[in-house]
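Purpose: get a first structural picture of the assembly so the mutagenesis plan has something to point at.
Setup: two entries, given in the order below. No constraints added.
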Amino acid sequence: MMGLLVFKENIKRLYAKCSLYLIPAVKFCLGFVTFYLINENIGFMAKLKNPVIAVVLGLVASFVPCGVTAFFAGCLMIAHVAQVSLEVALILLVFILVVMMLYYGFRPGDGYLLLLTPILFFVNIPYLVPLLVGLSGSLVSIVPVSCGVCVYYMMMYLKQNAGVLAGSTMSEMAARFVQIVKNVFGNELMWVMVAAFAAAILVVFLIKNLSVDYAWSIAIVAGVITQLAVIFIGDFNFNLPISAGSMVTGIVLSVILALIYQFFMFAVDYSRTEYLQYEDDEYYYYVKAVPKLAVSAPDVKVRRINSRKAVKH
Amino acid sequence: MLNEEKIRLMTEIAMFEKKAQKDVFPINRYFKGDYISIHLIRSFAVYTLTCMICLALWILYRSEELLNTMEIRIFTAYAKNITVYYAAGLFFYLAVTWLVYFRRYTAASKNMKIYQAKLRRLEKKYEASASRESEGEQRR
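Result (structure tokens, whole complex):
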């Protein structure tokens, strides 16, 4: 444990020292992974599928706010989608426009969630999103997370039906549009996941604010149970195509990552909790003070002591 | 000689100014009513535009059905339903807008008061040090 705490302190020191370079580097990684995953999964336009494009866009993303990166990702997605189906591109465009105008008009600063949710779906740990958002975000973040889930399932629909959609003629456009809307918005799995994520964010957010010991750990476990419960109820009602193996793997990985996140963000020592009670003219105060777990990183200085050269006789 | 307390105060003020440039100072240029009204008008325009886009998509979705039933009665019923949904949504969205910007203005005003108090404290410290210096010169 002590080693981990020292490691954490070292990371904090490194961040404080090099944040000027670390923040753009992290933003580059996030941007590059986003554009790369979009190209890999729905890269229907050959010109944009080039990895150099992902690198260049990633470089741009390292200097602009996350909201702008999300906008670029949306444009890239629509360009790829339009290559296969103009109808899906239109639906996606309207969806993104509506979300940006209605929600991001308030400047909430959580545009990265719209990107992060589909990315974590692609790497099979989507269950991590509600845990992190519930622990550190606000309840309003349910909106971008839900939209991220919808964007992912739209992309999946397109990926699975690209052949059928690309082969259709223009005369069938109206009928195809109706079919696509029905399929995309009638996808029960998408709504079940939206419900599971929203419920989990709510549960995690409420529990982590409780004044009980190990509130964050309890919140993580409760969040996972909530997600599982909603998915099982959805599966029971709609017979959803969910693979149990990948779900269990994803959930276990998500819990481990959430616990690592907790270690970095909320490391406290409950064994040294103190309860105070005092009063002023108007109130009685019952205060619970939980000390943070902290160690000072060892400041290692190497002093070289040159031994005298042995005199040979 | 360095005045540690003054330096700390100046650092706090500089940090606040850096953070407040985006959130607090622009808000403080308006009266509360004006600030909220501007955003309500903006939200009204945005919501109406969004509804028009969604309506266009809905017409495209129902185009076949609409073309097959060219009856004034049905169109009137559709128009009535759309107006009700639009009005209900607009009311909800404007209520959310009012709440968000009311809270934002209140928070900004509170922060501005703290900032002004810190500025006053700093000014007093400057005045105190200036008076000390003048007293010293008079003694000489």
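The radius of gyration of chain A is 25 Å.
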